[in-house]
Automatic annotation (TrEMBL):
CDD domains: DHQS (cd08195)
Keyword Chloroplast assigned: no
Domain 3-dehydroquinate synthase C-terminal intervals: 182-325
One GO MF term attached to the UniProt entry: metal ion binding
Family: Belongs to the sugar phosphate cyclases superfamily. Dehydroquinate synthase family.
Intracellular or extracellular location(s): Cytoplasm
The keyword Amino-acid biosynthesis belongs to this UniProt entry's keyword annotation: yes
Record key words, sorted: Amino-acid biosynthesis, Aromatic amino acid biosynthesis, Cobalt, Cytoplasm, Lyase, Metal-binding, NAD, Nucleotide-binding, Zinc
Catalytic activity from the UniProt record: 7-phospho-2-dehydro-3-deoxy-D-arabino-heptonate = 3-dehydroquinate + phosphate
UniProt organism field: bioreactor metagenome
Identification of the protein by name: 3-dehydroquinate synthase
Amino acid sequence: MAELKVKLGSDSYDIHIGTNWISELANQFTQMKFSSNALIISDSNVAPLYSNKIAAVLNSVGFSTEHYSIDPGEQSKSATDAMDIYTKAIESKLDRKSPIVALGGGVVGDLAGFIAATYLRGVPFIQIPTTLLAQVDSSVGGKVAINHPLGKNLIGAFYQPELVFIDTLFLDTLPERELYTGLAEVLKYGVISDCDFFDYLRQNSNDILMKRPETIIKIIHRSCQIKADIVSTDERETGLRAILNFGHTIGHAIEAYTNFEKYNHGEAVAIGMHGAALISYHMGLCSAEVVEKICHCITKFHLPLKAAHCPADKILPLLVRDKKVINGKLNWVLIKDLGQVTIVNNVPDAIIAAALNEIT
Ligand code: ADP
Ligand code: ZN
């Protein structure tokens, strides 16, 4: 097992990573000063697989457990679902110290975190992420949200969990495509801040794809550590945290153009990383070899390099709709070398257009 601390002053918390160790949750829960009724929020794919196992562990140390299961998918991050969960929480008499447990992927984590942040002005929140994407990304950083009919994640808060508990065993039941989408974010961490980690991913891609527990623990641990370091320095996203957006400017535009249907998040980010790498190269910031190495890894992880049927002239206007635009200027996270990025806000339109043409 591995452990790391996310340092955020009084909001600091631990991330625990292990394999086949759900029973360890008993220790964790007894150490915290929680009320003894917990609410486990999950979705209808994950609940039948793991909900009873988690409940049994919590029951064994004196917790009663209530369950709420949402339909899988982004459409459940809604105000209607949130209201139903508040009702469940009130009817179950959850108090200020009752833990809300998110058992699922990023959708469940965002929604359950939003409930935990707002119910009774905030109750303890425990993250048990079951997708690789949630384990390496959304469960760290404290962003919780629901969607508004006019846009994703528009209603939300920064709210830190008391504990993030990761069991790599959950990945055994995860569809392959969901594993690959998580690997896109893992690769991103290597590119933005650790060239040794990037090399490790390149050299161990087969073990990673075979989900060898030691390898998976290592990549989750390093990814969380990189994200935690960045988030601790910049909790509210004013500066450094922007580098986490690498590959996301184009990625978000591709997701939006294809109505969040054709590509999942990691696939869109993989295409976006390819685009950002090409822009970096055309700006004279990095070598062709760097671009080539990134493309090789993206392909190794069964992720796409190009978005077919997404015309560059349709993607271009969508870029400026990105949330990260400040004063109408696009801030590009570009590569200087593997493990080293820089933010550039004066990329000529012609270079952006050329890169878009290469990836669509
Ligand atoms: P993400 O974590 O990628 O943001 P979701 O929360 O939408 O996304 O989860 C992706 C899909 O994988 C959902 O259909 C969810 O029900 C399913 N899922 C999550 N974890 C597991 C798991 N461990 N085993 C099987 N399916 C899972
Ligand atoms: Zn992302």
